[in-house]
Amino acid sequence: MIEVIEAHPELLGIGIDEDTAIVVRGDRFEVIGRSYVLIYDNQTTTDAGGEFYFLAPGYRYNL
After folding, report:
1. For the segment 34-56, what is each residue's pLDDT rounded down to a tens digit?
2. Which domain holds residue 56?
3. pLDDT band at 6 (very low <50, low <70, confident <90, very high)
4. Closest CA to 17 of 1, 30, 36
5. Total tally of structural domains belonging to the chain
6. Cβ 29 vs Cβ 57: under 8 Å
7. Cβ of 35: how many Cβ atoms within 10 Å?
8. Which phi and psi angles does 26 have, rounded to 5°?
9. With the CA atoms of 60, 40, 1 and 48 taken in that order, what torsion angle do they form, in degrees rounded to the nearest 10?
């Protein structure tokens, strides 16, 4: 995912692990399955760039 983020920093990055999925409803999604989803959010920037989030099953995220 790092190469894609470096090439397209304006995009929201979503990495979905094996045996895991997201269910999108409107502008939100929920993580389901056995593992995690990695989010790179360029809208919440720091001096080093956007922020990364690891979301476990049951967590929700506003797109």
Report:
1. 999 999 988 876 666 788 999 99
2. 2-62
3. confident
4. 36
5. 1
6. no
7. 14
8. 65, -120
9. -160
Of 8, 9, 36, 12, residue with least CA distance to 22: 36
pTM assigned to the model: 0.82
Q: At 51, give phi and psi (nearest 5°).
A: -105, 150
Among candidate residues 7, 45, 39, the one with its CA nearest the CA of residue 20: 39
The pLDDT assigned to 46 comes to: 65
Cβ(24)–Cβ(16) below 8 Å: no
Strand order across the beta sheet in which 28-33 lies: 20-25, 28-33, 60-62
Answer yes or no: are the C-beta atoms of 37 and 31 closer than 8 Å: yes
